[in-house]
């Protein structure tokens, strides 16, 4: 039996660092990346946070391979310290050794020479800890980091591409926008999306829910999510609808049908329905 063809290019975001797991740091990198990927038409399937452990990193990457994810993006763990072990985890997942990458080493050398000339570091020497940032899985390509010292990394394993980015937000964003985004713009499947918000007053969510379930079964390509609240004792629902398709006309016509059906169902239940211009505040 053939697997169902995916309409969208799929992504897993793997955020690495104990500071994320114990609540010291808010995972703003994952949010930013998810926004960028979604804006390009990609689908983020999972956002996962793991600690600085080679086995944990390898395990979640292997799970992405098992699920045939198109792109895996890791954040954090590329620096010179003992607990920067992301590339060790990647190497274990793909079954390759870490090797000294000449291009990555040159990037690190130039960066520390620049930092030395600015008086930021005492020496431009390529110490073992600095050279560690140029040890990449065999076959990987370094991605220039214009802001910090650790290069990003690009690697292909079977049909999955792996991108490793630093955890420092401005470094991550620089490498993504300059080195990764152009690749994604060429490889992410071209799709069209459309969404709408409806404001429904006077119908409890529990009363409307069975009706929405029926609509979803008739239109499985449309994502429908209700956001209920109460104001002065009245039930209010902000209803979000979103569709993804290869044809913009299909998006528009399908949402028109779904909006009409939901409006009629809500009005039959005594509700008042209006369309919102953009997301509610």
Average the pLDDT over all residues and give the rounded result.
95
User: Beta-strand level of the residues, as a percent range?
Assistant: 25-35%
| Order of SSEs | EHHEHEHEHHEEEEHEHEEHE
Shape: elongated
Superfamily (CATH H level) name of the largest domain: MoaB/Mog-like domain
- Strand numbers in spatial order across the main sheet: 2-1-3-8-7-6
Structural class: alpha/beta
Mind telling me the C-alpha Rg? 24 Å
Instruction: Tell me the number of helical segments per DSSP (H or I, 4 or more residues long).
Output: 9
Briefly note the CATH topology name of the largest domain. Molybdenum Cofactor Biosythetic Enzyme, Chain A
Portion of residues in helices?
25-40%
CATH class descriptor name of the largest domain: Alpha Beta
Q: pLDDT under 50 segments (min length 5)?
A: none
How would you portray this structure in words?
With 281 residues, the protein is of the alpha/beta class. The protein has two domains: 10-187, MoaB/Mog-like domain (Molybdenum Cofactor Biosythetic Enzyme, Chain A, 3-Layer(aba) Sandwich); 192-276, Alpha-Beta Plaits, CATH 3.30.70. It has nine helices and twelve strands. The protein has helices spanning 18-21, 28-39, 54-66, 86-94, 102-117, 128-131, 169-187, 205-218, 248-268; strands spanning 10-16, 43-50, 71-75, 98-100, 135-137, 141-143, 152-157, 160-165, 192-201, 222-231, 234-245, 272-276. It has a six-stranded mixed β-sheet with strand order 2-1-3-8-7-6, sandwiched between helices. Strands 10-11-9-12 form a four-stranded antiparallel β-sheet, with helices on one face. The protein has a two-stranded antiparallel ribbon with strand order 4-5. The protein is elongated. The model has no long low-confidence stretch (mean pLDDT 95).
């Amino acid at each position: 039996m053939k697997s169902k063809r995916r309409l969208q290019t799929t992504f897993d975001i793997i955020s690495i660092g104990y500071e994320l797991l114990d609540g010291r740091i808010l995972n703003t990198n994952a949010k930013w990346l998810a926004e960028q990927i979604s804006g390009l038409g990609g689908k983020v399937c999972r956002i996962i946070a793991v600690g600085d452990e080679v086995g944990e990193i390898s395990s979640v990457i292997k799970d992405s391979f098992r699920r045939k994810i198109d792109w895996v993006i890791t954040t954090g763990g590329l620096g010179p310290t003992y607990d920067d072990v992301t590339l060790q985890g990647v190497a274990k997942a793909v079954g390759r050794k870490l090797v000294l990458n000449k291009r990555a080493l040159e990037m690190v050398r130039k960066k520390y020479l620049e930092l030395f000339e600015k008086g930021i570091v005492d020496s431009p020497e390529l110490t073992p800890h600095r050279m560690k940032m140029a040890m990449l899985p065999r076959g990987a390509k370094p991605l220039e980091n214009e802001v910090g010292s650790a290069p990003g990394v690009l690697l292909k394993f079977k049909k999955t591409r792996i991108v490793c980015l630093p955890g420092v937000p401005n470094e991550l964003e620089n490498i993504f926008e300059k080195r990764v985004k152009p690749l994604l713009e060429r490889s992410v499947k071209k799709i069209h999306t459309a969404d709408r918000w409806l404001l429904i007053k006077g119908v409890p969510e529990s009363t409307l829910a069975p009706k929405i379930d029926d609509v979803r079964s008739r239109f499985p390509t449309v994502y429908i999510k209700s956001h209920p609240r109460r104001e002065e004792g009245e039930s209010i629902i902000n209803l979000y609808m979103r569709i993804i398709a290869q044809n913009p006309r299909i998006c528009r016509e399908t949402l028109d049908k779904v909006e009409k059906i939901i409006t009629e169902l809500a009005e039959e239940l005594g509700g008042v329905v209006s369309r919102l211009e953009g997301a509610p505040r």
